[in-house]
Amino acid sequence: MIYKKSLWSSNYDKGLKAPKIYSKYEVKKFFPEVKEIHGNQGVMMQEAQMIDSRMAINSLLTATIDDYIPDMKGITLANYVEFKDFTTSGDAEGPISGAKLFDSLNDEEFDINAKVIVNCTGIHADEMRI
Predict the structure, then answer these.
(1) DSSP letters spanning 106-124
(2) Do 72 and 99 share a structural domain?
(3) Does 2 map to a domain?
(4) φ, ψ at 93 (rounded to 5°)
């Protein structure tokens, strides 16, 4: 997928300096307002803004590529799909093995199996935990 530069920020051609490690004495010299340094070194890091939605889309699209990580199959992306419940292998107390999902476009429920389940529910993580 190719994006025209004008669709995004024009600052992507500018870079930030890499983190730099300073000795305890350099920190005191360059930053005299620092009262006391407990360690032997300090680190100067640059901070910048980013377009987090662009990073999320790029991460998702990259994850769909087969063999992006050698011998790994790419993921399948689904939109308008709602999580209903976890599925377990064996009895109800067994380990989580997948999920029951609902496709709202086709109005049907289906199960998927997964080797890895990632709980990305943020502040609702405790509500999802079994």
Answers:
(1) TTEEEEEE-S------GGG
(2) no
(3) no
(4) -95, 0
Ranges of H-type helices in 17-111: 24-30, 52-63
Residue 3 lies in a domain: no
Our count of domains for the chain comes to 3
Domain that holds residue 39: 17-48
Strand segments, DSSP code E, in the chain are 20-23, 41-44, 81-88, 96-103, 108-113
Measured between alpha carbons, how far is 82 from 112 in angstroms, rounded to an integer?
A: 12
**Residue whose pair of structure tokens reads 């943020």 in the numeric block:** 122
- Please check whether residue 43 lies inside any domain of the structure: yes
Residue 65 lies in a domain: yes
Beta bridge partners of 113: 98
What's the pTM value of the predicted model, to 2 decimals? 0.50
Mean confidence (pLDDT) of the chain: 80
Percent of the chain with pLDDT over 90: 20
Enter the tokens of residue 65. 């590529």
